[in-house]
Amino acid sequence: MKTQVAIIGAGPAGLLLGHMLRAEGVDCVVLERQTGDYVLGRIRAGVLENITVNLMERLGLDARLKAEGLVEEGFNLADGERLIRIDVANLTGKTVVVYGQTEITKDLMDAAAPRGLEVIYEAGDVALHDIESDAPYVTYTKDGAAQRIDARFIVGCDGFHGPSRKAIPASAAVEYERVYPFGWLGILADVPPCNHELIYANHERGFALASMRSHTRSRYYVDVPLTEKVEDWSDDRIWDELAIRLGPDAAANITRGPSIEKSIAPLRSYVFGTMRHGSLLLCGDAAHIVPPTGAKGLNLAASDVHYAAEALVAHFKRADQDAIGLYSGKALARVWKGERFSWSLTKLMHRFPEDGPFERAMQVAELDYIASSTAAQTVIAENYVGLPV
Ligand code: RFL
Ligand code: PHB
């Protein structure tokens, strides 16, 4: 098979890019290792910035997002007794939307066939070849048969563990990494949220987050040491812990119910120092990871796709010879700011095992400062709502 762009991975980054290219008449094929149902079963992001909402709008795939997404005008930082509200709408004139990654992925998946976007699920042994040439190709197996796709570009949208980034020689880029000494234990339950806005809590027993997917579906997290096993956390134990860490006001409004999903996600900050090597571009988690504090991961994947689509369309439609070369720099400039925000909010809201009284005093001072300063709240709000692309 021959195409202009071979996309590896049908998560949100791969599907968004596929749709953007198809909308501009650029040929592409998306290869996914898993089944569609498996991809939809992964419970991940919940908060969308403007960039992500705008891409869905530009594609004309935002009908359900508009109908079912919850517009959020602010969120809260909790510290023991105190709740600091960040009035995002008033401070920035913008809002975020609560709409699950699962729902975005479903909307993109459902629209693929009608829009002529070819997505090949259950593609095994995907491997990249000749990425330093102008004629790269991808090999894979499907139903036991070996297959090959020749392309002008390959875009790796295959997440942190996919083969694309690994195809780039180690000598081509520096890796920047910070691994955190805890993970987030998440619980999804069909109960009304305890608050209409998100609450990020820093309690002496650890971090907690109250989030949601709808008026009837809640998403909560507590941080746990990496040695913890999800089997050791009964639903009751998680609800008890949330009630303590989120504070008495939120606790009074928590509705408990059976979990429909429960998992532990480790926290990591990671940036691969280049997002293009020869004819290979990287987008989303394939190139960078943020800790989930601040909800930037999916939104950075969306901004990468915005820049990648712009570069590929300029290359194919306007014979622009420079566009591809500019992609990595443009995407990384925004990625680093997302990394900085996610890292700083993680440091502010978690108790690190190595921290002593000084580090805790710094957290208290910073939260005090945020509580009392509109300037400090504006800094947080403009990062939370998403920096310009
Ligand atoms: P994905 O979603 O990992 O998709 C990659 C796809 O590539 C496929 N793949 C392969 N395909 C072919 N061959 C191979 N060899 C392959 N290897 C892998 C995979 O099967 C998969 O389908 O990456 P993408 O598209 O870059 O999207 C990134 C986002 O998924 C991620 O950044 C966010 O989920 C992060 N994140 C959040 N981001 C936000 O913006 N807001 C949030 O509120 C938010 N909350 C979260 C999060 C991530 C979490 N976890 C579990 C890591 C909460 C959590 C708990
Ligand atoms: C979520 O709803 O899953 C969520 C919300 C905010 C975050 C991370 C995850 O910062």
From TrEMBL:
<feature type="domain" description="FAD-binding">
    <location>
        <begin position="2"/>
        <end position="341"/>
    </location>
</feature>
<keyword id="KW-0285">Flavoprotein</keyword>
<protein>
    <submittedName>
        <fullName>4-hydroxybenzoate 3-monooxygenase</fullName>
        <ecNumber>1.14.13.2</ecNumber>
    </submittedName>
</protein>
<keyword id="KW-0560">Oxidoreductase</keyword>
<dbReference type="GO" id="GO:0018659">
    <property type="term" value="F:4-hydroxybenzoate 3-monooxygenase activity"/>
</dbReference>
<keyword id="KW-0274">FAD</keyword>
<dbReference type="InterPro" id="IPR002938">
    <property type="entry name" value="FAD-bd"/>
</dbReference>
<dbReference type="InterPro" id="IPR050641">
    <property type="entry name" value="RIFMO-like"/>
</dbReference>
<dbReference type="InterPro" id="IPR012733">
    <property type="entry name" value="HB_mOase"/>
</dbReference>
<dbReference type="InterPro" id="IPR036188">
    <property type="entry name" value="FAD/NAD-bd_sf"/>
</dbReference>
<dbReference type="Pfam" id="PF01494">
    <property type="entry name" value="FAD_binding_3"/>
</dbReference>
